[in-house]
């Protein structure tokens, strides 16, 4: 992920932290959450000359990439817990 991609992702995530504060993502419809993020995506789209849809797609791609990256780091730090045996067996 480039520095530009990371800054793009952080900008939207920081905005999301503000406008979605206190909202349970498990109990909230995706459409509602996306509507809350629309202003920042429209702002970015107007700054870059992209469509809002392109900004959304880029955001989702980068968020997925970051999620995989964090999971990989977690797994490499924690190791494979199954190698120690399943204590529930």
Compute the CA-based radius of gyration: 17 Å
- Relative helix content: over 70%
**General form:** globular
The pLDDT mean sits at 87
The structure class reads mainly alpha
Listing every helix as H and every strand as E from the N terminus to the C terminus, the arrangement reads HHH
First-to-last CA distance? 40 Å
* Individual helix count: 3
Give the number of domains. 1
Largest sheet: none
Give a description of the structure.
The structure is a single chain. 4% of the residues are buried. The longest helix has 27 residues. Helices cover 71% and strands 0% of the residues. It has 3 helices and no strands. The protein has one domain. It is mainly α and 89 residues long. Helix 1 packs across helix 2 and helix 2 packs across helix 3. The chain is globular.
Short overview:
With 89 residues, the chain is an all-alpha fold. The protein contains 3 helices and no strands.
Can you give keywords for this protein?
89 residues, mainly alpha
């Amino acid at each position: 992920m480039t520095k530009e991609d990371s800054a793009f992702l952080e900008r939207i995530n920081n905005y999301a932290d503000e406008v979605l504060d206190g909202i349970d993502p498990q109990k909230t419809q995706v459409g509602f959450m996306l509507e809350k993020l629309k202003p920042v995506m429209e702002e970015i789209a107007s700054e870059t000359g992209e469509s809002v849809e392109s900004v959304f797609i880029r955001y989702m791609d980068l968020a997925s990439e970051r999620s995989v990256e964090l999971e990989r780091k977690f797994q490499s730090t924690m190791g494979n817990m199954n190698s120690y045996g399943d204590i529930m067996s």
